[in-house]
Every structure is written in C-alpha cells, then in structure tokens.
Amino acid sequence: MMNKTVVVIGSQWGDEGKGKITNFLSEQADFVVRYQGGDNAGHTIKFDGVTYKLHLIPSGVFNPNIKNILGNGMVINPIHALQEIQALKKQGFPCNNLYISDRANVIMNYHMEIDALKEETMGEGKIGTTKKGIGPAYTDKTAREGIRIVDLVSSNFPALYQEKLKAKNELITRMGGKPIDYEASLATYLEVAKQITPYVTDTVTLLNKGIKEGKKVVFEGAQGALLDVDFGSYPFVTSSNPTSGGACTGSGVGPTKIDEIIGVVKAYSTRVGSGVFPTEFEDEISKDIRERAHEYGTTTKRPRRIGWLDCVVLKYSAMINGLTGISLMLLDILSGLDTIKLCCAYKVDGEYIDYIPADNGLLARCQPVYLEMEGWQEDITNVKSFKELPINAQRYIEKIEELIDVKVKIFSVGPDKLQTIVRENIF
Ligand code: GDP
Ligand code: IMO
Ligand code: MG
C-alpha cells in the first residue's frame, strides 16, 4: 500500500523516540505536523554526528523542502518559539519552512506562572508538570478565554491582553505570586508578534490543499497515550489528546485522510512526573538503563522513572490509537541483560486483568504479571537487518508482536538516524 499520511504517536508515557522516527520518516514526506501539546515536549534527533533537541518546532525542520506545521491543536509560547528558531538559525537552519496556525492558542506568561504556583501549592499531590503553562493554557482554550495566535498578531492584542492580564493577576496574587507588569510585558509581546507574523498562516487550508495534491504527511505526536487527558491516569496526565484522534482535531484533517498510525514504543518503559507506573522498578538494572540511555528529561532534566515493557499498556494503546504498526526504539539498551521481563497482565484483588482500569486506586493495586525472556549479550548498535539480531532479540520483537497483535515495522538500535531498520516500508 502506498501511504500518504502517517501519524506517529507515543504509545507509553512519552519520550519513546518520536522525534527520531518523525525525522527519519520526514525524509520521504512533504509535511511534518505537530498537532497538540507545546514546549512540554522534548524531541531528540541525531544525524551527521550532531544531536538536536526540539520542543515546539516539528522534527522535519532541518530539510528546507519539508513544510513544518505547528497545528491549531497546539498551545504555543511565542517567546519560546522564537528562541528555538533563533537557535536553529545559528546552527545553520534558516527556518523558512515553518508555518504556525493562526488558530493555535497562545501560552502566555501568566499561564506559566499559574502552572508553577499550582504545582507548588499541591505539594506531595502535584502532577509534576513541566511548568510550561500547558494545563492553564488548555484550560483557557476550553473555557473560551484563550488568546489565539491570530489575536497575538492583531492590532487588538494590547487591549485583549490588558483585559486578560487583569483577571489573571488577581488569581496570581490570590495564589501567592507576584503580579505581572502589563507595560513591560506588552513591549515584549509586541516585538514577538512582529517577529512571528511571517510564519503565521491558515495551516488548515495549506495542509488540506497539500493532501489533495497527493503530498505526503507525517503527523508528529508529542507526549504519549498514557498521558492523554481522556485515556491516561487522570489527573496525572497532560491537558491534550496525544492519541491519534488528536491528529485530526489538532490539524484540521479529517479521519478518512489518515492512512497509517505508527505507535512508537520504547523497548522498556519510562515515565517522568507523578502517577501510577505498574512495571516501575528501582535497582542496579534500572540505574544502569537510566545511565546508558541517559534517561533524564529533555525538557526538565528530571531523572526518568524506569520500568519493564508493559504489554497491557501497549495493547490499550494499540486499541485507542488504532495502531497499524510499531516502531520499537532503544532495543540496544537491553543488550547485556540475562533476563528481560515483559508484563503481559495485571493481577489485582486476586484476579487477572489485561486492560487499564479508569480507577487509579485499582490501577495502583495492579501487580504486573511477568513473562521472563532470555536476554542477549551482543552489542547490536551496528545491526542493519532483523536477521542480524541475536536470536533472543528477534524473539523479544516477535513476542511483542504476538502479545499486541501489531507488526513491528521499524526498530531502532541507537540514537542516530542511521541506526534505524525498516522491516516494512511506511511510505
Ligand atoms: P521523544 O520525546 O519521543 O522524541 O523522545 P526523547 O527524545 O525525549 O527521548 C528519546 C531518547 O532516546 C533520546 O535521547 C534519543 O536520542 C534516544 N534514542 C532514540 N532512539 C534510540 C535508540 O534506538 N537507541 C538509543 N540508545 N537511544 C535512542
Ligand atoms: P515528549 O513529547 C514525557 C508529563 C510531565 C507530567 C505530565 C503533565 O517529549 O514525549 P504538562 O507539562 O504537560 O502539564 O505535564 O506530562 N510530560 C511528558 N513526559 N514526555 C513528554 O513529552 C512530556 N510532556 C509532558 O512530566 O507528568
Ligand atoms: Mg521527549
């Protein structure tokens, strides 16, 4: 089948390697589209010996022939967007291939302030957000009180900002924070608006026109299925829909136009921030994994929590996303283990279940039921095909396919773009 549009989504709790695979697939595409989230994301891409970290900018930015869209479903901090653009320009990427949706909501200074204050007051019960203002910005969007990019670049912005800031400053003061100065911050926003204007456009029309002309599109998910506001362990989630449905609402492309949905899966599990994590473990092995894979947040630098691969999570993720394929990442990190554990069910209150309950109390009582598989000792970072993998690595991949009933179409054995093996072509 000749695919035209592919959604790349995180199948776990984020940081699965979405940036790497999006960038890899983008070489065959015409558009890369971010459809939700904001600069809470941290996507790592490595090629030609250099590592790049992107937060807001789509992972196809390095190729001038690819149109990179920041979609309407995103929440965009324009100050941070410009900083990221400046940094990329310094590294030799002109960023003339960026298109920012006029419909996207803006993350304002007060959103970041409120996010941080809220987390502080929640103490032990905090969500462990990235403090980028994501939750407060999506709250305003849903409450129909947000500022959109189209407003930011309009002449009405000063009055609109003054009105919003007045109310937010009252809230900030009540929460124990320091009110934001209107005049000083307005000057910054007016400058930012001027600089961002050339990138702002009706991306919905641009993208749909491209699709009509037969152009190829990669939708780049941020976060992951278990951080989805509807499907994750609420309230320990982000405030958007990283799952595949979000690709439609967050870009203005209808579901009938989506051809393939690739779930990016880390060969084990990680999570940053609070919330239930059934297969989490902390011992010498997890410490070793953390150091070898450098499992520290791309955005917040926090150490990531480590767990075994959870196939209950993956089955759930395959279901809610409608996965048509998997890209299995960081397989190289499992080299050198005698035994690798795979969670295939949960045991809770004396019963076995293989789904994710909505009740966090119930989920917290779930004990993972493990299948133990023999590991492999070989370094696999130079492997170029499935057949070259040690037999136990092949068995690990096949077991995942069997348990989840989705084919592993791509696997990855290192951070570099070249360390990617395609078993079945996506485009
Ligand atoms: P994203 O948020 O899903 O894009 O993922 P992150 O960039 O936050 O985290 C993934 C990390 O794993 C990054 O440091 C990548 O460079 C790295 N990475 C991706 N694929 C592989 C792989 O196959 N092997 C190894 N060792 N590292 C990888
Ligand atoms: P990428 O795209 C991993 C987590 C935070 C926190 C929760 C809510 O790089 O995979 P938020 O700031 O969104 O309100 O925080 O979600 N989180 C991520 N974890 N990867 C991410 O993005 C994340 N973005 C947010 O740690 O638990
Ligand atoms: Mg990340």
Written account of the structure:
This protein has 427 residues and is of the alpha/beta class. The chain has two domains: 5-102 and 202-422, Adenylosuccinate Synthetase, subunit A, domain 3 (Adenylosuccinate Synthetase, Chain A, domain 3), CATH 3.90.170; 105-199, Orthogonal Bundle (Adenylosuccinate Synthetase, subunit A, domain 2), CATH 1.10.300.10. It has 13 helices and 20 strands. The strands form five sheets. A ten-stranded mixed beta sheet has the order 9-7-5-2-10-1-11-15-19-20, with helices on both faces. α3 packs across α4. The longest helix has 18 residues, at 157-174. It is globular, with a radius of gyration of 21 Å. Guanosine-5'-diphosphate (GDP) is lined by residues 10, 14-20, 42-44, 46, 293-294, 298, 329-330, 332-333, 412-415.
